[in-house]
């Protein structure tokens, strides 16, 4: 809830998968050494709600 009213939100739909190896994982692992997997989200729909 916002300071004065409900505010704006988003409804996001899609699919997700965990990545445990590969170039994308290696890039993120360099930035965040504590990672053991990365969540990749493919958005199919995004709608702004009020």
What does this structure look like?
This protein has 50 residues and is of the alpha+beta class. It contains one helix and two strands, in the order E-H-E. The protein has one helix spanning 23-31, and strands at 9-19, 38-49. It has a two-stranded antiparallel sheet. The radius of gyration is 16 Å and the shape is elongated. The model has no long low-confidence stretch (mean pLDDT 90).
Terminal-residue CA separation: 11 Å
Helix proportion of residues, in percent? 10-25%
Question: What oligomeric state best describes the polypeptide chains here?
Answer: single chain
SSE-based structural type: alpha+beta
Q: Which sequence of strands runs across the widest sheet?
A: 1-2
What amount of the residues lies in strands?
over 45%
Envelope shape: elongated
Unreliable parts: none
Number of helices: 1
How many β-strands, per DSSP? Answer: 2
Report on the biggest sheet: 2 strands, antiparallel
The overall average pLDDT, rounded, is: 90
Sketch the topology as an H/E string, one letter per element. Answer: EHE
Query: Radius of gyration in whole Å, from Cα?
Result: 16 Å
Summarize the structure.
The chain is α+β, with helices and mostly antiparallel strands. It has one helix and two strands, in the order βαβ. Strands 1-2 form a two-stranded antiparallel ribbon.
Tags for this model:
single chain; 50 residues; alpha+beta; two-stranded antiparallel ribbon; 1 helix
Chart the SSEs and their pairings.
Elements (H helix, E strand, L loop, with lengths): L8 E11 L3 H9 L6 E12 L1
Antiparallel strand pairs: 1-2
């Amino acid at each position: 809830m916002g300071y004065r009213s409900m505010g704006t939100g988003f409804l996001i739909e899609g699919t997700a998968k965990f990545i445990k190896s590969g170039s994308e994982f290696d890039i993120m692992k360099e930035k965040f050494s504590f990672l053991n997997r990365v969540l990749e989200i493919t958005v199919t729909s995004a709608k702004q709600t009020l």
